[in-house]
Amino acid sequence: MKSPGLTVRESKGWLKANKWLLLRRISQISILLLFMAGPWFGLWIIKGNLVSSLTLDVLPLSDPYVVLQTFFTGQKVAGTALIGAGIVLLFYILFGGRVYCSWICPVNIVTDVANGLRRRLDIKGGAHITRKARYWILGMTFILATMTGTIAWELVNPVSMLHRGIIFGMGMGWVVIFAVFIFDLLVSRHGWCGHLCPVGAFYSLVGTQSFIRVNALDRDKCDDCMDCFAVCPEQQVISPALKGARKGIGPVITSGNCNNCGRCIDVCSKEVFHFGTRFAKEKNSKNINLRMTRNTEATS
Amino acid sequence: MNNPLPQTGINRRRFLVNSARTASGVFFLAVGVGLYAKRSESLPAYAIRPPGVKDETDFLGSCIRCGLCVRDCPYDILKLATPGEEVATGTPWFEARKIPCEMCEDIPCVEACPTGALDKSLTNIDDARMGLAVLIDQENCLNYLGLRCDVCYRVCPLIEKAITLEPQHNRRSGKHTLFIPIVHSDACTGCGKCEHACVLDQAAIKVLPEHLAKGELGRHYRVGWKEKERLGRSLVTPDVEHQFNLPEGMQYDYEGQGLIQEQTPVTPFPENPLESLNRNAGETQ
What percent of chain A lies above the pLDDT cut of 70? Predict the structure, then answer.
C-alpha cells in the first residue's frame, strides 16, 4: 500500500510535506507544557486544566461544553467560568470549533498514533459506527446530567481525564486512554474522535459558521490520488468541496466537522487545498467549465 | 433493484432502523455511565471536601474538576481524585489523617473556584462545615483511659469552642478525674487537625461527614428547659409545688431520708406501760 503523502514528500521534502502536522504537534505539546510549567518548574503561567484555567492570574478560560453540562444538572453556576466559557466560545466560533480537536486536545495525539499504526499495520475494516453517534452521545451526556444531578460524563470523559491526569495525576486513567487507543487501532478507524466523542460533536456545532476554513480553491488540479481522503479524519467533509464543482458546490469545506488540521494541505502534491476564510471564492468561472469537462471524463 | 416498495418507504425504514440502532448503542453506554455516576455520589467517609461544600450531589453538579482550588491551596492539602479512587473522578478532596485543612483566613480554595461549587458566601473559615469530628473509639482514647493526653483538644484551632474537656469521676480508680474531650457541632469546622494529631495508631477521633456524625431530634421535640429559658416560663402547665397527702404532723423529704415526724404524736398511752396497766387500779378499790 502506498503511503499517503509519499508523492509530496518526494517533490517538496519531508519538512514541507508535514508542515501543518508539525505545527499542530507543536501547538498541542506547547499548550500541555504551558500547563505543566507550573507543577514542574514552579512557573505559574496557566493554572488549572483545559476544563477551566486561569492564565497569568487574570484571564479565565473554560470549556463551554463542561459549563453547559453544569447547567443541565440544575445547579446555578456563577463565576468566572461563565466569562471563560464565553471567551473560548468566541474563539472557536471564529477559528472553527474542532480546531480544539486537532490543535489542542491531547487525546488527538493518542488517536493519531493509533491511526498511523493502523495504516502501517494495514488493519482494515472494523465495527461500523455512524458518525452521527457522537451527537446522540452529546445529547445523552446532557440528559444524564439532568437525571443524575451531576456532570456524569466528566467521570469517564477521556478528553478531560487525560489532560487533567497529565497535570494532576492519572491514577487508573491510563486504562481509559489505552482503551481509546486500541479501540481506534483495532475496532474502528477514527472511532473515538470521528464517531463517538461528544466533545468533538459539541465543537463541531460551535464551528458550523466559523470564519477560518480549509478550501479546495485549486480543485481543478486534483489528480484523484486519494491521499487527502486517506489522511483526513473526517473524510466525508472533503468530497463536497473537492468534487462538488459540477453540482455547483463552492470550494470551501464548510462542514463543522472539519478539524482545520491542515493534513490535506500537507499531503496534496498538487497544492489543491489552502487555509482561507469561509468566503473564499474561485478566481474565475472559466476554470469551472474546464474542470467540469475534466471531471466528467474522470467519472465516465 | 426490483423492489416493489417505493424508494421513500425503504429509506424511511432504513432511517428509523439506523436511528434506533444508534440510540440503543448510546443507551447501553448511558446505562453504564449513569449507574457509575449514581454510585460515585457516595463519598467515602474518610474523604473530606474543601470548605464551602454543602451537599455532595449539588457539588458534583457544579464542580467542573479544574483543580484551581488544588493549585491555590498553600499547603498542598487538596488533591483531585483520579480514576479508580472511590471519590468522584477529578473532584477535590483531602484525607484528615494524612494532612488536615489549615483553615486559612482568606480561604484561597473557595476564592479560586470558578463556578461557585465552593460557595463564595463562606467568608469566615470558622463557619466552614467540612465534616464533624467524632470521638468514635471511647475504649482506646487515652483520656477515656484516665490519662491526660489532651492532644486533640490542644491542636484544635477552636480550642474550648469546638472541643472542650469535661471532668468526670474515674470509677475505676475511685479517686481520679477523667477529662473527656467533647466535640461541639456548633463550632467544629471538620478541619481534621484532631484526627491528624491523635497519638493512637488508629485515630480515636475522626472527622465524619455531618450526616453520618449527627443524630437529629424528632421535629415535634422541644427540650423543655431550653424552651423555658427562651420564653421565661414553662411551655406546658405551670409548675405547681407538689403536695403529699400525709397524716397530720408528717412530712416527706428524700434528702431528710423520707418520712419525717414534725413532733411527737398525741397518744392516749403514757410512755411508761405500767401506768396504763395500773390506770384504774386505785379507783376500783
Answer: 93
Per-residue pLDDT band for B1 (boundaries 50, 70, 90) equals very low
- Helix H segments across chain B? 7-39, 56-62, 68-72, 108-112, 151-155, 193-197, 210-213, 224-231, 273-277, 281-284
Name residues 54-83 of chain A within 8 A of B (Cβ).
54, 60, 62-63, 66-67, 70, 73-81
Contact status of B61 with chain A (Cβ, < 8 Å):
yes
Report in angstroms the alpha-carbon separations of A275 from A107, A265, B175.
24, 8, 91
Report d(CA B87, CA B90) in Å as an integer: 8
Render pLDDT for A236-290 as a digit per residue (tens, 0 to 9).
888 888 887 778 787 888 888 888 888 888 888 888 888 888 887 776 544 444 4
Is the minimum CB–CB distance between B24 and chain A shorter than 8 Å?
no
A136 touches B: beta carbon within 8 Å = yes
**A54: chain B residues, CB-CB within 8 Å:** 68, 112, 114
Question: In whole angstroms, what is the distance from residue B65 CA to residue A165 CA?
Answer: 11
- pLDDT tens digits, one per residue of B241-257: 777 788 877 888 888 78
Nearest-CA residue of chain A relative to B79?
Answer: A168
Give the nearest chain B residue to A152 (CA atoms): B37
Q: pTM, whole model, 2 decimals?
A: 0.78
DSSP 8-state class, residue B159: B
